[in-house]
Design a protein that fits this description.
Layout lengths: L12 H10 L3 H10 L3 H8 L5 H8 L4 H9 L3 H10 L3 H9 L4 H10 L3 H8 L5 H10 L3 H8 L5 H10 L3 H10 L3 H8 L5 H11 L2 H10 L3 H10 L3 H10 L3 H10 L3 H11 L2 H10 L4 H10 L3 H8 L5 H10 L3 H10 L3 H8 L2 H13 L5 H5 L2 H15 L3 H9 L2 H6 L3 H13 L4 H5 L9 H14 L7 E3 L5 H6 L3 E5 L2 E5 L3
Antiparallel strand pairs: 1-3, 2-3
Length: 493
């Protein structure tokens, strides 16, 4: 700093603040407020200024010094001038908050440069004549709307509701019309679909709401119609075909037919909706069985299967489900050898069923003496015979991987796995034979994914899928699925 630099201009904050604290000369304080290096010093000087004109000039500045000066400004004339002339809504509205004089508010509502300031001022007015004038003349729709919201004159409101160029202003005027007939007559003819929907919703015009829901172009209008419509046929149509998922959800929630509602909820409802439907809708055992078998969420499938008590349906699910948790739950409810033998013949349930028979000591003497792999093969053969999968047994007995690949199913994939486990030295030569055609990839992938986690030797057949797109991988002759860590590729090439 120069030899004669004032203390308050130096970059020593403590000294500068001490100087301001002792200074009482208004002209010096004005210089400090405008020129000090530190904003803290500027504000300290502003807080000691008393001249309103000086404070007004500083208040026009942006930033914290301008805000500090505005806090000290009290002159209504200067506050009005600041509100009217300010280039920013924030500064203008802050000045307006300090004005209480009605005439000043009227002038601000009519002449402020920033429309947000005019809007704020109009919202504080009570004079009907002034409000009417602003509502009809201001160029900004938000300002006109603020004025309308203070009007009570029915005739003026009707004119504005019919003639204003802005839908938001017309809607605000319409909402303040107290005569139901007049409100309905004006609102139902409005060019804006949302206004028509709001009018019909309030007055219960079900026919018009139905038309808006099924034929409306505006999502907000259709949503409002769905919220207030009671027509079940129209709601079902919307629940099935509206382009908006939110409107489909709203329509679903209002359906009263439990079967239709269940169908739509389980077709595209959220997991929360599906769980609620299971616990609240009067679903038949057949409905629940279908839900368990089609459901992709383990949480929902488990909630559904817990509601089934019929032994026959539980067995049907255990023989068809691809979820280990569902199969395990059902197995826990079975304790008869006959039931467990049936499940031991299904590849996806075999290990769990055999383990349960061991635990309950239900294996016969011959079965207890068998090595684990031989026991699995034994039940696998029984399952193929019981389920009419003789072709799988033939291919298995011949060690024919190509034949197994012709008709991929749980049994054929299990047969391939058993062959690989029984002949580990032949893996390299047999992999190329067992190709899974892409048309059956989904079926085979489900089982392989389950087996992958149970049999370490399968891990040599797995490659990370991130390097390939699904299509590229299918072209390579493999199949893919996902686990908790991401995509898996089961590649037999």
């Amino acid at each position: 700093m120069g030899l004669f630099t004032p203390v308050w201009k130096e970059r020593n904050l403590e000294k500068a603040l001490a100087y301001v604290d002792k200074c009482n000369k208004q002209s010096t304080l004005t210089r400090i407020a405008n020129e000090a290096y530190y904003s803290e010093v500027c504000i300290a000087a502003i807080n000691k200024l008393t001249d309103q004109d000086t404070l007004y000039i500083i208040a026009m500045n942006r930033g914290i010094t301008g805000d500090a000066a505005l806090e000290r400004l009290e002159d209504p004339r200067l506050l009005l001038r600041l509100a009217v002339e300010s280039q920013t809504a924030e500064k203008g509205k802050k000045a307006l908050e300090k004005i209480s004089d009605n005439e000043c508010l009227i002038q601000a509502a009519r002449t402020a440069y920033v429309s947000a300031v005019r809007e704020k001022a109009a919202s504080r007015l009570t004079d009907p004549a002034v409000l009417k004038d602003i509502a009809r003349r201001d160029k900004n729709a938000d300002v006109r709307k603020a004025a309308v919201e203070g009007l009570d004159d029915e005739e003026i409101l009707k004119v504005i509701a019919r003639e204003d160029s802005s839908a938001s202003v017309r809607g605000a005027a319409l909402a303040r019309i107290r005569e139901p007939e007049a409100r309905y007559a004006i609102g139902r003819q409005d060019e804006n679909e949302l206004i028509r929907a709001e009018t019909c919703s309030v007055l219960g015009d079900q026919a018009s709401l139905k038309d808006i829901l099924l034929n409306g172009k505006t999502e907000n209008a259709r949503r409002l119609a769905a919220e207030h419509l009671e027509d079940q046929e129209a709601l079902e149509r919307a629940a099935r075909s509206d382009t908006s998922s939110e409107i489909r959800r709203l329509a679903r929630e209002k359906l009263k037919d439990p079967q239709v509602k269940a169908e739509l909820v389980f077709r595209e409802g959220s997991e929360e909706e599906r769980l609620r439907a299971i616990n609240e809708l009067p679903l038949s055992d057949q409905n629940i069985r279908d839900i368990v078998l089609k459901e992709k969420s383990e949480t929902v499938a488990m909630e559904a299967v817990r509601r089934i008590t019929d032994h026959r349906r539980l067995m049907d699910i255990a023989l068809r489900s691809q979820m280990d948790s569902v199969i395990s739950f059902i197995l826990d409810r079975f304790s008869e050898r006959e039931d467990l033998l049936v499940l031991a013949g299904r590849p996806a349930a075999a290990e769990m069923a055999i383990a349960k028979m061991r635990k309950l000591d239900l294996l016969d003497e011959r079965e207890r003496k068998m090595p684990e792999l031989e026991l699995q093969e034994y039940f696998f053969r029984k399952g193929c015979q019981r389920n009419g999968k003789g072709f799988v047994l033939d291919a298995y007995n011949d060690g024919n991987f190509a034949a197994l690949a012709e008709e991929p199913c749980e049994e054929s994939v299990m047969a391939a796995l058993l062959l690989l486990r029984k002949n580990p030295t032949e893996r390299d030569s047999t992999y190329s034979s067992f190709l899974i055609p892409s048309r059956t990839a989904e079926r085979a992938a489900v089982l392989l994914h389950s087996l992958y986690n149970k049999h370490p030797e399968l891990r040599t057949m797995v490659r990370n899928a991130n390097k390939y797109s699904v299509k590229e991988h299918m072209d390579r002759g493999g199949i893919s699925c996902h686990d908790d860590e991401g995509p898996l590729i089961f590649d037999f090439k």
